Amino acid sequence: MANRKRNKPVFFRVDEEEYDLIKQKMQLIGLNDMGTYLRRMAIYGYMVEVDMEPLNRLTVELSRIGNNLNQLTKRANETGNIYMDDIEVLGEDVKKIKDEIKQFTGGLVCKMT
Known about the structure:
single chain; 4 helices
């Protein structure tokens, strides 16, 4: 135990009902390690489960917009022409992403510098 990072043991007992409740809460946030769960709860007092699916969708959309922008840039460099319709579609996609970010953040405004 001397070589362990966490070398101070903490023990406590719970009844069957409390144990089941702890296990349920662990499942809710997707943790399988009771030690990790109990340590985080003791230190931080709460744990938050964040649904990252909306953010994952935004990442896919941003990647798609980036690909479209690269294609437009390549075409403009090769031909010297760019179509206004393509720019408008790209602008609509960017507006859609902004709206989704606003919805995801609950309307919070973040300034990036």
